[in-house]
């Protein structure tokens, strides 16, 4: 006789239906309540914002823009408005043709009231600083980007970018690699503690592997992609970090907006 294991204890399931109170994305105060950072931070708090298809793809036809919708763009801009600094990988800057953050007059006033700069800088994590001078990152930005690189690259990058960017050595024990813990310490020392990272998958994977991610916001698009698109986090290492859900929103198009924070 083959023994059959007993069923696990019952788990309570909750149906998420149209029972919550609806609000428009232009209700800034209501949206901000879902995406504000913890108060009185003494260290960097790292939030990641990513977009995925129903079948787990991080891109559609090579970029994340093919997965986006109006609600996702509103949430994207809300998170940027809350952040002190936006951290991205060099590959994402190239693929998505990143520009500097754009802030409305209302957003600038709100940021000033919170003691923040009017526009958060883009901080690019890159081992080689192989970015083009005519990229929007430099040509369409009110605030010079921060180029977070390593000891072996910093002098060359400083010479190449000049006043168009601030180049920072954030290497640790390895002179040819950026150390993320060192990066966060540098940002914290500058008062840039509300960190928003928008990936890509390699950078998010490094934050997870290094146990430096505090929060993950994932928009799930009602789209199937298939193919060989990457998922939202990748890399060579693995981690096991328990998270807890703080909210789950939806919209008439069927997008899901989830927010998870560390369970410990």
From TrEMBL:
One Gene Ontology molecular-function label: 5-amino-6-(5-phosphoribosylamino)uracil reductase activity
Organism: Mycolicibacterium grossiae
KW Oxidoreductase (keyword) present: yes
Record flagged with keyword Metal-binding: no
Stored InterPro entries: DHFR-like_dom_sf (IPR024072), RibDG_C (IPR002734), Riboflavin_Biosynth_HTPR (IPR050765)
Record-given protein name: Bacterial bifunctional deaminase-reductase C-terminal domain-containing protein
Domain Bacterial bifunctional deaminase-reductase C-terminal residue range list: 45-256
Superkingdom to which the source organism belongs: Bacteria
């Amino acid at each position: 006789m083959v023994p059959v294991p007993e069923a696990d204890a019952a788990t309570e399931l909750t149906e998420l239906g149209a029972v919550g109170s609806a609000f428009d994305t232009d209700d800034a105060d209501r949206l901000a309540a879902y995406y504000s950072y913890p108060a009185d931070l003494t260290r960097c708090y790292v939030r990641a914002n990513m977009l995925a298809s129903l079948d787990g793809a991080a891109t559609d036809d090579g970029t994340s823009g093919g997965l986006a919708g109006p609600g996702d763009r509103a949430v994207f801009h809300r998170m940027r408005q809350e952040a002190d600094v936006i951290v991205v990988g060099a590959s994402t800057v190239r693929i998505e043709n990143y520009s500097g953050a754009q802030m409305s007059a209302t957003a600038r006033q709100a940021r000033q009231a919170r003691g923040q700069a009017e526009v958060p800088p883009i901080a690019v994590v890159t081992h080689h600083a192989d970015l083009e001078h005519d990229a929007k990152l430099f040509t369409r930005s009110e605030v010079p980007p921060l180029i977070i690189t390593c000891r072996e690259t910093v002098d060359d990058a400083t010479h190449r970018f000049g006043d168009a960017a601030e180049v920072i050595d954030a290497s640790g024990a390895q002179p040819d690699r950026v150390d993320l813990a060192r990066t966060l310490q540098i940002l914290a020392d500058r008062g840039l503690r509300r960190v928003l990272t928008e990936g890509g998958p390699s950078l998010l994977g490094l934050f997870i592997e290094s146990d430096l991610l505090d929060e993950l916001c994932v928009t799930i698009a009602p789209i199937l992609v298939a193919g060989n698109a990457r998922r939202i986090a990748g890399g060579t290492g693995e981690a096991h970090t328990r998270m807890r859900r703080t909210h789950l929103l939806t919209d008439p198009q069927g997008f899901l907006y989830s927010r998870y924070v560390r369970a410990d």
